[in-house]
Amino acid sequence: MLHMDLLLLDLVIVLAAARLLGAAARRIGQPPVVGEILAGILLGPTLLGPLLGDTLFGPEMKPPLQALANVGLVLFMFVVGLELDQKLVRGKGRIAATVALGSTAVPFALGCALALAIAGEHAGDAETLPFVLFMGAAMAATAFPVLARILTDRGMQRITVGGLSLAAAAVIDVLAWTVLAVVVAVAGAGDAEGQWKVLLALPYAVVMFTVVRPLLARLVPAHGRAGRLTPGLLSLVLLGLIASAWATEWMHVHFIFGAFLFGAVMPREGAERLTHEILERLEQLAVLLLLPMFFVVAGLNVNLRALDLSSLGTLAAILAVAVGGKLLGSYAAARMQKVPARQSWALATLLNTRGLTEIVILTVGLEKGVLDNELYSLMVVMALVTTGMTGPLLRRVYPDRRVARDIAEAERAALGETAAHRVLAVVPAPPGEQGPLVELSAALARAASPCEVALVHLRPYPRQRLEVGTGLSSELAEMAETLHDLETLAAAARDRGAQARVVSRFAADVAAELPEVVTGARPDLVVLPAGVPGYAEVRAAAACRVLTVASPGGPQADGTGPVAVHYGSGGSGGAADAAALVALALAVSRGRPLVVAGGGRAAALARRLAKLGVAASAGEVPPGALVVAPDAAAVPDGAHLLVRAEQDPDPVDWAAAVAALGVPA
C-alpha cells in the first residue's frame, strides 16, 4: 500500500539532498551530477543501512520514485536531442569522426574482453552476448551534456579543442545509443512478441525523419503567428514526445530512444525562438526537479557495503579499461589526424567524461536484467570517478593560461583582426638609434607569414607642466621628431617584408603602463632591451616568448659570423627550444650558418636541422658569432640575446618551423 505521507517526505529528502550535494560539487569544480549521485548513494543502504534505508526508501516507495524519475528522464533525453547541434559533426568532418571512432572502438573492444572474463560471475541469468555488448557500450560512452557544461564553464566551446570534442562526442553519442538499442533489443527479445516488435525500430526511425519531421516544421509558422509559445503548442510537443517514448518502449527498445529521437527531429531552421522557449519551460522542470530525482534514485540502488576485496579487484579492472581505453583510443586517433600532442591529450581527457549518459545506460542495463546489483554499483563508481577526474586532469593537461590564450586568438579572429605573427619591440630612447633592434624584430617576424612588427615607445610626461609659450613648442618639436624616427624605423621593417605599426604616447609612469600596452597587443614574441623602464614587469606580464637584448652587439646585422645557440646546456626543454627557434630564424633570415652548442642534445638537433636543409652544425661557439641562449640556463659569457619561453609551450615541430622559414627541402 502506498503511504502518501511517506512519499512526500521522500520527495523532500531526495530533492534537498540533491540540491545540497549538487551545489557542493559545483563549489569544488565538479558537475552537479556528481553530487546528485553521491546523494543517492548516501541515502541508500551504503550509509543508512537496511533498517533506516528500508523505512524511508523501502520496496513500496521505490516504484513511485522511479516513475517520477523516468518522467524526468523522458524530458531530459528530449532536451538532449533538441540541443544536439548537428552542425558540430558537419563542421569538423574527418577529424571528429576519426577521434570518435577511436574513442569508441578501443574502450568497446576492451570492455567486451573484460565482460567475457567476468561473465561467469556477473552475467547471472542474462545471456552472454547482450552482457558482453552492453559492457562494451557502457565503456565507450561519453556524457555529451556534462562535457558541454565543462567546456562552457571554462569558455572552451569557443576554441578548436572544444569544438572538436563536442563534435566527436556527438558522434560517440550516436554510436553508443545505436549499440545500446541493439543490446536492449537482443536482451528484450526473449519471447515471440518481443522479437517481431523490435523489427519495427528501424522503420519507426525512418518515419520520424521523413514524415514527423516535416509535420513538426509547421510549428514554426504557428509560433510566429502567435508570437509566443502558447499552451496549445506546448501540449502538442509534449503529446508527441510522450507518444514517441511510448512507441519505443512498446517496441522493447526503451523509452529513452523515443524521447531522444523526438528531440532530434524537432525543427531547426528558423526555430531558434521556439526552441529557446521550449527549453526554458521544460529545462526548469526536468533539470531542477525530476532529473536530480533520477540520479538520486540511481544512487539508491548502489550498495557499497556488499562489496568485498574481490569486488575491489573488479573495480580496478573496470577503471583501467574505462580510463585507459578512452584516453589511449582518443589520443591515438587524434594524433593520426595530426592534432598536436597537447590538444590530443585534452580531447582524450574531455571524452573520458561519463556522467549523465553513463548513468542512463547503466540504469537501462539494471532494468533489463543485463547487470546484477554488484556490477551496477561498481559501474556507477566508475562513472563518478571518470566524471570527477575530468576537471582536475584537464587543468593539468590544458592549463587555464593556455585556454585564455586560445580564447584571445578566437576573439581576435571573430573581430576580423589579422591573425598575423606579431613581434612587439619595445623601442627605448632615442628611437633614431634603434635601427638594429628593429631589423632584429623584422627578421624574427618573418618566421611566419603573414607577419607584423609593432614598435612601442612610451615617453614620460615632462616634469614641468606644459604651458603656452616656448616650453610647449619645445615639447611638440621633440614629439614630432620622435614620431618621425619611429615611422622611419617602421618603414625599414616594411622594406624587410613585415607589416609595421607604431604605438607611441606620453605616460605618467612608463614602468607601470608598458606591461599593459604589451599584453593588450597580444604578441607572439616580445623584443625587450635590458634595462628599459618596466623590464621586470613586462617579463612577468607577458605570456608569450620574451627576447632580451642582453648585449649591445646582439642586434647588429652587419657582421658575417654565424649564429650560435646554447641548446641543452641547462634550463628546461621549453626554454632551450625557444632559444633555438630564435637562433634558427635569425640564421635563415640573414643567410648565416647555425652552430648548436651544448652536448648530445645539441648534436641531435643539429643533425635534424641539417637533414631539413639548414646549414647547421654542432660544436663550440666560434668567435664573432651572434650568441643566443635560454635565460633559464647558466648564461654563457658574451651572450647577446636571452630567450624566455612562453608559458606552457608546445613541443616544437622542427620540420614545420623550417618550412615556415622558406628553407628548400
UniProtKB/TrEMBL annotation:
**Per the record, a Pfam family?**
Na_H_Exchanger
Report the locations given in the UniProt record: Membrane
Name the major location: membrane
Question: What is the recorded membrane topology of this protein?
Answer: Multi-pass membrane protein
Q: What stretches pass through the bilayer?
A: 6-25, 37-53, 65-84, 96-119, 131-152, 164-190, 196-216, 228-247, 253-270, 282-300, 312-333, 345-364, 376-394
- Keywords linked to the UniProt accession: Ion transport, Membrane, Transmembrane, Transmembrane helix, Transport
Domain Cation/H+ exchanger transmembrane positions: 19-394
Q: Which domain of life is it from?
A: Bacteria
Show the Gene3D superfamilies listed in the entry.
1.20.1530.20
Tell me what this protein is called: Cation/H+ exchanger transmembrane domain-containing protein
Q: Which organism is it from?
A: Planomonospora alba
